[in-house]
Amino acid sequence: MRKLRALIIEDSEDDATLLIHQLQRNGYRLFAKRIETREAMLEALQMQHWDIVFSDYTMPCFNTLEALALLHEHHLDIPFIMVSGTVGEDRAVEVMKAGAHDYIMKDSLSRLIPAVERELREAESRRQRQAADNERIRLSSILEATPDLVAITDLKGRIHYINRAGRRWLGLDEKNRCPMTLLTDYQPFWTAALMENNALPSALAEGVWEGEMVILDSNGSEIPVSQVILSHRNQQNQVEFLSTIARDIRERKHYEQALQHRVTHDALTHLPNRILLRDRLSRALINAERNQHLIAVLFLDIDNFKQINDALGHLAGDNCLRMVGQRLAQCIRTNDTVGRYGGDEFLIILGNLHAPADVEIIIKKIRAALSQPFRINNHDVFITLSIGASLYPQDGGDEENLLKSSDTAMYTAKHTGRDQFRFYAPKMKDRGRELLALETDLRRALEREEFILHYQPQLDLSTNQITAVEALVRWQHAQRGLVSPGDFIPLLEQTGLIVEVGNWILETACKQAQAWWAWGYPLRIAVNCSARQFQQHLLDTVRQLLQKYSLNPACLELEVTESVVMQDVQYATHILQHLKVMGVTLAIDDFGTGYSSLAYLKRFPIHSLKIDHSFVHELSDDSEDAAIAEAIVLLGHSLDLEVIAEGVESEAQAQFFQNRQCHRIQGYWVGRPMPAENLFPLIEARNIKCRIEN
Ligand SMILES: Nc1nc2c(ncn2[C@@H]2O[C@@H]3COP(=O)(O)O[C@H]4[C@@H](O)[C@H](n5cnc6c(=O)[nH]c(N)nc65)O[C@@H]4COP(=O)(O)O[C@H]3[C@H]2O)c(=O)[nH]1
Q: Which parts form a coiled-coil structure per UniProt (predicted)?
């Protein structure tokens, strides 16, 4: 028994009963209500849902047309069958036009059941269609509202549907998009291979492809997208349509790139960091192997960087690293890489070299770029680098070995002095190991009291008396014997131990000077002052020592090299002026080998110039060195500076300086560096007249 809710609009109760019986006889379990007015129909419609409406054509207060109008008003699609006496063709047509589904004559109810069944069936299919339509409208409003591009294309790429976001991206409007617009026109050429070889075959074979792609917007700008492509088959199981859903991932990409940049770049200099440098090196190696090219790895370390940090502060140190990075970057080609390897170390990878000599061209460029002072915290700071280079393939076949070799070469360069460059050589490895062992011993040398001072006499050429000595440190190593300063001073510099050891030297020298003074020999004692010492509390240290040993400040001469004062001219001026006020004299050591900027001679309160022994060794009357040495003596005279010639080994050399009225000479000819006790007889013999009786 089928359930049927029937609303019967009928003024005749008998006719309604007849109708009900007819339906019940045919298997309907009926819930029926008879009404005969508009109000009753309204109430019935509000009361519940009806499966079917039967209506007589006319009643005293109501009729079929009014009933149909009422359903229409309430947007109700209920099968409506007019069951009436003869009404004439015109009226029947009118009723059908007004929305009735069928017309059955009361005296021929045999048609009733098939008509009811058909109308119920059709109503159900209309309902399903409507539900599907509603569903489609809902889905399409979602698609229209989504910010992702959604499109349906045929296999040729022609767009059959594209949502609002898609239209906006591609600059299409409803009219010009279909049917000839091709979605493939909005893909950059370089994604074609991925689309043809990967995305489409997968979507066709497996029904779906998911991945990252790029779409061109209406301006031709690339939008990176996360894309899904679905294939849709027809009833013959052939793919007929493809749908595409593309999500704009620009923001994600931007974050990914920022993250990637942060992981691979140094936050301070924005140069590639160690991770990226290694990656670039491994790529360069692959390239070099393929193309049979040379590669050079340059390891660069800032000389005395700690001093800049200590003297000017960490922010200034950071600034300095940034500026060095910028200048280095200007020295290389775009295909090469410069990065910060850590601390004050930089790395340069040079690819595609034809010969090792190419490296030296870059080194020249780097030196030229660093020759101008760096303006840091209102100070002009001169910066030099120790550079080591390794070459592929000879110095290492992989990243690890090339880096190690360039590091070893840099280490060797650093130990040779400031501003040095070295290519890697296999024997450097042994030297490196030796230096490491030396460094370990050096750290214990001070507490084991292994340092001693030797003194080398300086002869005053006008009086022919020894008036000064230079204090020169020696390291009395238990196994190695007497180690010369050339082998350990750079190590002391590099480890920072130079400050402690330098202070010990200064104190020992002051003590010795005071002892000589006490014995009646007012000798001036010259003490070498290293760059770091110069930067760290030098004034306080000197002041305290002069007080402690009640030493006449004129007995102390500090020797600094040109590079030490030129590193930070303002700071040097400040220190030198204070030392002068204290009464301590100052000598420029190794004069003629460094900057030789004459301007600073006037600016700094200097007492003497020491002609470097390299000009003294090859001295003969007509040599270039002789001309330089003579020029320095003349310069001293005209600037009212004392000139000391060092490395004087022969009488002829001594005579040369005597003839040019050089003030003092120092060298093996006068006496080698020696312990204080050995010096005593020498002074006694020469300086009889000089002795002051207490
Ligand atoms: N061939 C030759 N050489 C001569 C002659 N006369 C002196 N010399 C050597 O020349 C160097 C002069 O010292 P320097 O230029 O200050 O050069 C010094 C100085 O830069 C550094 N040094 C030595 N002692 C100290 C020190 O106490 N403190 C610091 N900071 N550096 C020191 O080590 C360098 C080398 O010192 P030394 O090996 O003692 O070498 C000394 C000395 O032994 C000569 O007639 N012929």
A: 106-133
